[in-house]
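Sample entry (590 residues):
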Amino acid sequence: MENFIVSARKYRPDNFRSVVGQASITNTLKNAIKNNQLGHAHLFSGPRGVGKTTCARIFAKTINCQHTGSDLEACNTCESCTSFNENRAYNIHELDAASNNSVDDIRSLTEKVRIPPQVGKYSVYIIDEVHMLSAAAFNAFLKTLEEPPRHAIFILATTEKHKIIPTILSRCQIYDFNRIRTEDAVEYLKYIAGQEKVEFEDEALHVIAQKAEGAMRDALSIFDQVVSFSENKITYQSVIENLNILAVEYYFKLTDAFMNNDLPGTLVTFNDILKKGFDARNFLNGLATHLRDLLVAKNKETLVLLDVSEGMKSKYLEQAAAVPAEFLFEALNICNEADQQFRFSKNQRLTIELALVKLANLTMVQKKKIADGKAVEAEKKSAPTPSPNQGKQVAAKTNTPVAESSVSHEKPGENSSNGNGRENQVVHTKSVSIKNILKAEPREIPVSEEEIDEVDQVSSVPEPLPVVDLSEKVLIEAWNAYALTQEKSHPRIYNTLMQHKPGLTGDGKISIELTTNAQRDNFIHYIKPGLVKYLQEHVANIEYVFETNLLENEGVVKKVYTDHDKLEYLIDKNRELEKLKTRFNLDFDN
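Predicted structure, serialized as tokens:
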């Protein structure tokens, strides 16, 4: 029986053209060879299994080839290429820094560097896992790396570039290798499957490439494992069974259950998944990934982010069309919160089941919000809308008292009379005070169309607002409701409103007792505008007059809340601070 050679070794690239997924780096190296601009030190860094050592070997083989072709590839026929292919080349040296990381090992290397190559132009030294060298070994290597003999070229390979000291990095040309894209890995797996005469399904190779996470060597190892398991016929089912991967059909099934508010079906499906031995945390991450894929599948521009096979892509497009984007946004947020809570939860299964319950009821909650919104809109539309003439009649019929500062009326004894001899007061309304509203008693006066036209010509200001019976109970309820809207965004406003409740004075003003002058200024300038707007929208669209009073109680310790309060407190302790503030005209930043 012939010795089996794993695919990672059997199909290891032997020229630049066969390197997978590193076109930018191979082109740079080929151009350097073409222009005879070879650096004396190169650093290849990147994740595992992406071709760092392979590219170093191909580069060393090509620069020593005696008959390089027009495509800058090694000929594989000259003595240098033949000796390299047969692993007997004396001008290419490989060193494992993980096991040769001492100063003595580097000293031995620097002594070998002086010897010129027997075959070819260059002696190439490939040092793998160079970050494993000790600090003393790095320092011993500095001089040789900076000024090597003309025939010596160093290629350093590492997966952890950040562990290499800066003085080494500054002496090297640095090449950063990328992870292998899933599409590139799948194409190479198809090529190997064809060479080995293995039947395959595209979805199966996609799963293998995704499981490898960008490492071609890992993908080839998984490929060999699955081929042995499935007896030269790679199917999607055989791959997920061998690699213990949860089938994506479960996620499609769960998403359909979410959309149908099928809570029992959701919990039963999750229980089946746990019975098959799948990890709950991996399931949660897989569900979040599935929801993310559905989200990117909803837009043609983001469809390129969907890393699945063509056959699976059609399934995602079909389900994405049936799932609203709002559901996906909220569902991803729920999965993210469950993932954060999972590690610290004592009952981890319950944590995920609670997240699934929220997902299964999510569409129901969203539908209820939409229905409530439509009901409110319908109620607004069904409410009678007064016509312009009706508004004019209200202005003429209602004797609405208004604040003195905002009303212009005729002097006593000066009345305008109509043809019927009745006297009418011409009212110019800008705002309404609570005092006059509470005392007002509406009375009806028959008005003719001529009088309405007369009022319309004299007054060009907005129509007067209806009479509102404002009670202290209604005011406090609205006051507390507004405070709750500020609890998270403006906690200082929330604390001020909750600690200082309003009251109604006899003349209809809103009275509030505050602790300090700074607190009163803060209320007038920062709290009052938003509060008045809220009251006008939710209670009555009238003018609210506030009366702010300061509590004078020396027995009570005043609490320091705002910056102004803090300044007053400090000035009470040291009067010189007030002089300093006045002298330099200091104030708070806005």
